[in-house]
Amino acid sequence: MVSMMNKTESEWQDELTPEQYHVLREKGTEPAFSGKYDSVFDPGSYSCGACNTKLFKSDTKFDAQCGWPSFYDAIPGTVVLSADDSLGMSRTEVTCATCGSHLGHVFSGEGLDAPTDQRYCINSLSLKFEPKK
């Protein structure tokens, strides 16, 4: 994976935990309902776990009951969406626009109770939460 921050994969490995590296740099997925932010709904913001770019505001987070933190929108310009046809299905991958790290996937058309028709399904391991002060 190409890093837009000009860091080598060795540098990322030194900075991230093995679990974070697997999700953020190797496009892994944490097990459902295992992430520390799945049930957090406190005011604040969520940043990229690799580069600290602010990605999501807590007021766009909702309980999709899917086992991963879910947001109905990202902060404009902070994420990149791209086709992901791995695992024998068509999905849309979400990566950090600053460092290129894998965050999760975005799904549309699920009929969820959210202001947009999107669910950004994001790994807790790819995020850092900063409570509102």
Brief summary:
The protein is mainly beta and 133 residues long. The chain is 12% helix and 32% strand. The model has no long low-confidence stretch (mean pLDDT 94).
Notes on the protein architecture:
This protein is mainly beta and 133 residues long. The protein has one domain: Metal Binding Protein, Guanine Nucleotide Exchange Factor, Chain A (Beta Complex). The chain has two helices and nine strands, in the order H-H-E-E-E-E-E-E-E-E-E. It has helices at residues 9-15, 18-26, and strands at 44-48, 54-57, 61-62, 70-71, 79-84, 91-96, 102-108, 118-122, 127-131. A six-stranded antiparallel β-sheet has the order 3-4-8-7-6-5. Strands 2-1-9 form a three-stranded antiparallel β-sheet, with no helix packed on it. A hairpin with a 5-residue loop joins strand 1 and strand 2 (54-57). The longest helix has 9 residues, at 18-26. The protein is globular. The model has no long low-confidence stretch (mean pLDDT 94).
